[in-house]
Amino acid sequence: MDIALFVILGLIALVVIWLWSTYNALVALNVRVDEAWSDITVQLKRRADLIPNLIETVKGYAAHERQVFEEVTKARAATVSPEALSHPEQAGAAENMLQGALKSLFAVAEAYPVLLASQNFLALQADLTDTENKIMASRRFYNGGVRELNTKVLQFPQNLFVKSLGFPEREFFEVADSAVIAEPPKASF
């Protein structure tokens, strides 16, 4: 009887230790994904702060391109909306819209050689390119964390109980048209 009791207690202890370590690993992965999303939102906000200055600089040279400025302003607002900053799917859609609008803005800028020579414009464009690179890096880090978390959530036997503990699968930060964001805006005209 004593040996059977020790075996049962040992098995229960192993199960408790496994549950404890699994839960803690999921908490750590969840926090890592939240941190990575926070990094993305910081970069999205940084880029959104650069865009009004870029628009004003281009406006000084191409004031008659009102529709392009309105499209960029609308797309910028979409990227920093509460929905986009809290849901990867909405952020991806906003990214598509902004990248298309920025391409139009840079196409307008190409028609103005004096603008292209402006130090202010070149500095803003370099900052924007740097920020785009940081967004891509943050996106890779976030998606890697989501992959790890989702793998852990979906693996057997965790998949039998982790969702009830508050660990659902997370969304990847993807864009519908990956060609739109394949490269950051370029500073060469």
List the helices and strands and how they pair.
Layout (H helix, E strand, L loop, with lengths): L1 H60 L4 H14 L2 H5 L1 H23 L2 H5 L1 H36 L35
Query: What are the segments in which pLDDT stays under 50 over at least 5 consecutive residues?
Result: none
Quickly give the CATH architecture: Up-down Bundle
Highest CATH level, the class: Mainly Alpha
Question: What gap, in angstroms, lies between the N and C termini?
Answer: 84 Å
Percent of residues in beta strands? under 5%
Report on this structure.
By secondary structure, this protein is an all-alpha fold. It has one domain: Up-down Bundle (de novo design (two linked rop proteins)). The protein is 76% helix and 0% strand. It is built from six helices and no strands. It has helices at 2-61, 66-79, 82-86, 88-110, 113-117, 119-154. The protein is rod-shaped and about 90 Å long.
